[in-house]
Amino acid sequence: MVQKNRLMKNKRKNKNYNPFDCGVTHFLNLVGGKWKVLVIYGIIKDCNRFSLLHKIIPQISKQMLINQLRELEEDKIIERKIYAEMPPRVEYKLTNYGKSLMAVILQIQQWGDKDLKKTSCI
């Protein structure tokens, strides 16, 4: 019973929600939400350790960052490498699959930068 509760607790609500096989919904199931794109972007910018990611995204709780990293790893967007040192060191990097998201993320960044400039002039 404990094992069943643990499995249910870790199951993501929206992971498989895509009633119309929509590409946008699929994308949002993988990287949607408040934090995942920021985590991916941080890893791209060489903030590839937990403490660095938490430093550049201070509003995210440690538990939420752990959850987001686990989900991104589960979806094969990032991979985690553990170094056998004392204390142990863990680094994250994008997989080739994760790198395929970069064009989309950079487009979002360009659009956001352009829109920020436009709205700041109003």
What does this structure look like?
With 122 residues, this protein is mainly alpha-helical. 57% of the residues lie in helices and 10% in strands. The protein is built from 7 helices and 2 strands. Strand 1 and strand 2 (89-94) form a beta hairpin. The relative contact order is 0.11. The model is unreliable at 1-8 (pLDDT under 50).
Estimate the strand proportion: 5-15%
Q: Helicity, in percent?
A: 55-70%
- Provide the succession of SSEs: HHHHHEEHH
Strand elements, count: 2
Major sheet description: 2 strands, antiparallel
Features:
mainly alpha, 122 residues, two-stranded antiparallel ribbon
Can you give me a brief rundown of this structure?
By secondary structure, the chain is mostly helical. It has 7 helices and 2 strands.
Record the SSE blueprint.
Blueprint: H1 2-10, H2 23-31, H3 36-44, H4 50-56, H5 62-74, E1 78-83, E2 89-94, H6 96-99, H7 102-120
Antiparallel strand pairs: 1-2
